[in-house]
Amino acid sequence: MTIDFELSPRIKGTQKMIRSFAETAVRPIARQFDEEEHEKPWDLLKMVQQVMGGGIGGALGTEKKEEAKEEKKEKKPKEINLAGAVTVEEIFWGDAGIALSFPGPGLGGAAVQASGTPEQKETFLARFSGKEPVWAAMAITEPEAGSDTASIKTTAVLDGDEWVLNGEKIFVTSGKSSLEYSDGFVVVWATIDRKAGRAGIKPFVVDHGTPGMELTKIEDKMGIRCSDTVSLSFMDCRIPKENILGSPEVVDKTKTEGFKKVMATFDATRPLVAAMSVGVGQASLDFLKEKLTEEGVEIRYGINPQRMTSLERDIMKMEADLKAARLLTWRALWMLDNGLRNDLQASMAKAKAGLAINGITQKAVELMGPLGYSREYLLEKWMRDSKINDIFEGTGQIQLLITARRVLGFGRDQLK
Amino acid sequence: MVSFELDEEQKMVQETVASFAADQIEPLMRDSDEDGSVPEEVIAKGWELGLVGGCIPEEYEGFGEGLSALTGTIAMEEMAWGDLSMSLHMMAPTVLAYSVLDQGTEDQKKQLLPAFCEEEYKPSTSALIEPYYNFCPSALKATALRDGEEYVLNGAKCMVPLAQESGEMIVFAATTPGTGFAGVDAFLVPSGTKGMEVGEREKNMGIKALATYPVTFKDCRVPAVSRLGGNEGSDFIRLLSRCRLALAAMAVGMSKHALEHSRDYAVERVAFGEPIGSRQAIAFMIAEMAIEIDATRMLTWEAAWRCDKEMDFEKEAALTKSYAADMAMMVCDRGVQIMGGHGYIRENPVELWFRNARGFATFEGMAMV
Fold this sequence. Notes:
The complex is a heterodimer. Chain A contains 15 helices and seven strands. Chain A has helices spanning about 10-25, 30-35, 40-50, 60-75, 80-95, 95-100, 105-115, 120-125, 175-180, 255-295, 310-335, 345-365, 370-375, 380-385, 395-410; strands at about 135-140, 155-160, 160-175, 185-190, 200-205, 215-220, 230-240. In chain A, the strands form two sheets. A four-stranded antiparallel sheet of chain A has the order 2-3-7-6. Chain A is globular and about 75 Å long. Chain B is of the alpha+beta class. Chain B is built from twelve helices and nine strands. Chain B has helices at about 10-25, 30-35, 40-50, 70-80, 85-90, 95-105, 105-110, 235-270, 280-310, 315-340, 340-345, 350-360, and strands at about 125, 145, 150-160, 170-175, 185-190, 195-200, 210-225, 270, 275. In chain B, helix 8 packs antiparallel against helix 9. The chains are: A alpha+beta, B alpha+beta. Chains A and B meet through helix 11, helix 12 and helix 15 of A and helix 8, strand 9, helix 9 and helix 10 of B.
């Protein structure tokens, strides 16, 4: 191999197709489903399900499974995660809120994919390839536990052949879609042993319609309004014993294969969140440059900084930041595709992309003056949408913490 | 297909230059900065690596297969990890050599390239920067106007490395003033040409081991054939952009060293009963330094890759160089900050990197890939 930044013909084909889809089917309804919060673009979602068979939801879950089969047949270089990033970037270029509401296995499916047994994968992932849209969600955050997952209070107690769940979960993305709009499921993180701390926290699959699970609230949000974010309450919610993902044993956390697999989920999802940022950033930059061109403003790349206008410096910084974020994202996923440990690079990409996108969208709104602030254009929406990218899947600060631990060689106890 | 893996040759170059930088350059960094000179033996050993000769094809007495900007950036990064002044000294001939190799006429190649393939390092240099606060390569004040079979050079240059001892100099001047990058040409001027005067050695804030000079041209006449590319002229923005990639790569290498130094200090230095790196105020600075260094390396690689693939890369090179200059300053500033008072003392390398880092915003055309 040698260093190469050219996407394979296969990914390029996908990229072109997704871009045209984003441009014609997603972008035109972006404003509508921002204003009409809690509504869903059903025609589009059904169409997505039928065309993509659920695979579009972040190149996770079912699509990965198909790919795995394919690769056994012919030994070709792996690029499934990179392909996922390119797909995600293009859909998010269309609209972040709608893209986040697409059906598919999502984060819940990713958890099953990462740490489920073959039987669990069969049971839970098959549903995404049907004709009707199906979602799966992930429930980690609680009112008093966000990034600090060790403080999770939701409990799971084994009672005969069943786990009994009790607790409150908030900020569950696509929770309503998974549990009320479709025959989906939610992966709930709960502790089976409070004294064991992180070691006792396990993911459980809770199917839609399970008694004892109640959707208690739908959040009104600053951005990504097309995507539903809900609170769930579990009151003596009984699920089959086999719905635990990974081993039910409480062993020293970081040492178990199960824990590593779960953590490995983040190595794939963090760069994908970074790819989401890059998509929205590209949309904002495209829009800004188009408007400037219309106004006859030329950006003089390559002249010295002392001679540049403030606008030119800003644009150059935005372009470089965006490109750097994209390349760091690609690198993290290329490593994953090639079986290299990428946790550091995944966090670096997420941290850079989250910061870059916020800088880019906020600056773009500023540079467009009153047009930037007006709801007549989507730019202001992109700025609202993108704020979430520096928050979900681990805030920018958490990414810095992880990066710093790796660079310094410190464990959790040495750098808190 | 996207890949971030170095090929075998690049791995070899990386390894060779990295161990040269660690064994031969880095131990001399402080002394050569204080003395204001680069030891002869380092230059000789650096030249033995054959980085320049390795890019020149056999027909011009070299032993290489041509230029790869990407491989060049990998080498430049590793070398600058050792020391920036010494790297700029050793790599000063690249601007003239690679410009001729890339865009010279056959005669120019035959005449000039063999000198770079000899065993001994022969200084040669480039004159691009001019002594004005608003200096810009797209608006050079130095002119080269055609007069019969000659060009007449007029104007002032500064920050010309090794101007005193160089046998050949590549001089950039406007042949069509007022037309931006397109109106700039390069001229191959031997030392001692009448009308060219090298001034007193300059005193700079950083890169103190590198001897730089002001050079003035007063009705300096050179034959028309000394114009790079002959009658066709040359593509100045391409040459400038390749220089920008070299400088960006050097910024990455030097910053990487500053990060490693800060990291080690943050782990060893104890305050309030624990290593200072255990505090987020320090740890987050280090994380951001690491992220921005990697970000800049990726930008540099991508722009260099575009260059090698003969795609447009001028805009990318400009973005990358300006990003690299900001990154280097940020990283080296934090390097000093993390060490506190110790960082301000000349015993520690961070103050040297801090002074060197400021230069990247100003440096242009001082090395090439």
